[in-house]
Amino acid sequence: MRTLIKHILAATEPKEAVTVKGWVRTRRDSKGFSFLELNDGSCLANVQVVVDSGTPGSEHLAHLTTGASAVIDGKLVASPAQGQKWELRATRLELVGTADATYPLQKKGHTQEFLRTIAHLRPRSNLYGAMFRVRSRLAFAVHQFFQERDFVYVHTPIITASDCEGAGEMFRVTTLKGNIDEKPQADFFGKPTYLTVSGQLEGETFACALSNIYTFGPTFRAENSNTARHAAEFWMIEPEMAFCDLQGDMDLGEEFLKALARYALEHCAEDLALFAKFVDKGLQERLKFVVERPFVRVPYSEAVEILKQSGKQFEFPVEYGLNLQSEHERFLTEEHFKSPATVFNYPREIKPFYMRLNDDGKTVTAMDVLVPGIGEVIGGAQREERLEQLHENMKLHKLKPEDYWWYADLRRYGTVPHAGFGLGFERLLMFLTGVPNIRDVIPFARTPGSADF
Ligand code: 4AD
Ligand code: MG
To answer: Which atom of ligand 1 lies nearest, measured to the CA of 239?
Structure first.
């Protein structure tokens, strides 16, 4: 494997012979020599290459324009220029691929909207290079967090016949042509199937055998809400713990978010500094705050009272029994508590069938973790482990128990209290980088009306 620019620039002493391979960011020509900035995506920094006229291969210099690819041999020497320790004195140039003047990613800053239209090239920009390095590291941090705590990673299915959230926002998967509702039993799986909205129900079956598990995979929702926080395809992390109640669930959610923020601060410092400079000035302070301070915990009923008494004009109504909208969630975290907050015990009518009914007969053991700038990043619950009550919940939500026979079986054979949650990976990345649109934290966004690339 070749040595990446990241490692070349981390050198502690000059080197006689190194080779760099990457894409040209800029070229400046002077009398008798040229400067090239080369980047290979391994880090934010470019390596500056000094090419004297007469260097073997320098006849190709004119073609080493922004976007072209090159292999350059040279000597790594201390750079007299400010802001960089090393530069490369080229001894040989090789032009690998040209990029003509139509190359759309020029040195000037482009808007994020424009960059979305060239999503195949935007990872070559500083901001998106940083974003997708952070995304990769955080995916690793997720696995590390759970593996260190003996959670078992479970691959739950992408194609499913059940609607976990009961919101009817599923994409149909079919091989039928024509009227697909006419004879669903003739379909590939012998019944209507969909892309999963959550691996939770299958995850619960594994938690009720292996104790602590987690999933981490793509989920799909046909929500027709064209917002900056919703994607039709997004990645979710769903831990599930047997012998665990709502308290333990809230504890894990808080510990998990803190660990991920700490990981980002420690392992993605250079890239976070870029986001702090260009996107969100207070980024590191906010993340440190999240790491250090306990989250506020507040019952839903109390949160509603706070909103009602805030004197604030909201677009959506605030009333006990209605869902909290993102504007309400943001008010609570940004203006009222000035801290992440976990809201729990929601009215049963506005939450899915699988949540455990509280003794008050009105609320269920739901919990949402809200963070400043985003609103909800985590949604979870203690699950209804009592068979009779589960059937009762299904009735209320107009679900057919026979469709969920295997899920109900868990309550029939050695049922245990258990709980879990889902963390939206893109919402987490928005929170960690300050980037305000979900389309910019996912390599190729899938949103209503848009499935390019
Ligand atoms: O609150 P949600 O709908 O919860 C569930 O799916 C549960 N089954 C999770 C569980 O208990 N195992 O979704 C969980 C999280 C949300 O808090 C949000 O961060 C994210 O998934 N999310 C989305 N992210 C991007 N685009 C969307 N359309 C999203 N819908 C939910
Ligand atoms: Mg939710």
So the answer is: 12
What is d(CA 98, CA 413) in angstroms, rounded to the nearest whole number? 65
Q: How far apart, in whole angstroms, are the C-alpha atoms of residue 184 and residue 172?
A: 11
Q: Tokens 């691929």 sit at which residue?
A: 97
Q: pLDDT digits over 390-425, tens only?
A: 999 999 999 999 999 999 999 999 999 999 999 999
Domains and CATH numbers, the chain: 5-97 (2.40.50.140), 122-440 (3.30.930.10)
The sheet that has 418-424: what strands, in order across it? 152-153, 212-220, 233-242, 418-424, 375-382, 363-371, 341-347, 296-299
- Residue 225: the pLDDT is 83
For a ligand 1 pocket test, name from 156, 198, 200, 423 the mutation site with the most ligand atoms within 8 angstroms of its C-beta: 198
pTM over cut 0.85: yes
254 phi and psi angles, rounded to 5 deg: -70, -45
Chain segment 308-337, per-residue pLDDT in tens: 999 999 999 999 999 999 999 999 999 999
Ligand 1 atom nearest to CA at 438: 25
Closest protein CA for atom 23 of ligand 1: 424
Cα separation of 430 and 422, whole Å?
16
Distance 164 CA to ligand 1 centre (A): 11
Q: Give the tens place of pLDDT for each residue, 185-217.
A: 999 999 999 999 999 999 999 999 999 999 999
The CB of 74 under 6 Å from ligand 1? The reply is no
Cα–ligand 2 centroid distance for 378 (angstroms) = 7
Q: How far is the CA of 164 from the centre of ligand 2 (A)?
A: 12
Cβ(329)–Cβ(370) below 8 Å? yes
Count the Cβ atoms, other than its own, within 10 Å of residue 438: 21
